[in-house]
Design goal:
There is one protein chain. The protein is mainly alpha-helical. The protein is 60% helix and 4% strand. It contains seven helices and three strands; from the N terminus they run αβααββαααα. The protein is elongated, with a radius of gyration of 25 Å.
Length: 158
């Protein structure tokens, strides 16, 4: 008999301080590997260690920085230039804190706003408001049913 599967999985997990491959970081952030390479070309602060054959290994601080950049770009609708401005004005540690969920960048200025992302957010909001309105209508209908006197059904016990 071999080891239980859960035991094997536990031993394959890396420690929090271990370096991560681009595949691991890509999966963790939910972005393709080519996006991480693109961000590396646009943000000089992203400096993974490169080993033989150009393989990238990311330190925990690199991963936090990437998470912060992802949150600024994808979560808050900033442009690349806007994210670069945040890094320049507030520093790497601030963006790493954003990545860990310990800090928040303010809303983007008009010149830092990714119009496609904010349009998506606006249409999502409109959809959610329409659904909320429909749910409120349903609640009102159900409340009206609770208040109405139910008619006796033939053969039902009183």
């Amino acid at each position: 008999m071999g080891l239980p599967l859960a035991s094997v999985e536990h031993h394959s997990e890396k420690s929090p301080g271990a370096f991560r491959t681009i595949t691991e970081v890509s999966e963790d952030l939910g972005v393709p590997q080519h996006v991480l390479r693109f961000w590396e070309s646009r943000f000089s602060q992203i400096r993974p260690t490169k080993r033989a054959g150009g393989r990238r290994y990311y330190r925990p601080d690199d991963v936090d920085l990437l998470k912060g950049i992802r949150r600024i770009l994808h979560g808050q609708g900033y442009t690349i230039r806007g994210a670069q401005r945040i890094l320049k004005e507030h520093g790497v540690r601030f963006v790493q804190a954003i990545g860990r969920g310990e800090a928040e960048a303010g809303p983007p200025l008009p010149q830092d706003r990714d119009e496609e992302a904010t349009e998506g957010l606006a249409s999502d909001r409109a959809t959610l408001e329409a659904v909320l309105s429909e749910l409120r209508s349903c609640r009102a209908l159900l409340a009206g049913l609770d208040d109405a006197d139910p008619e006796p059904v033939d053969g039902a016990l009183a």
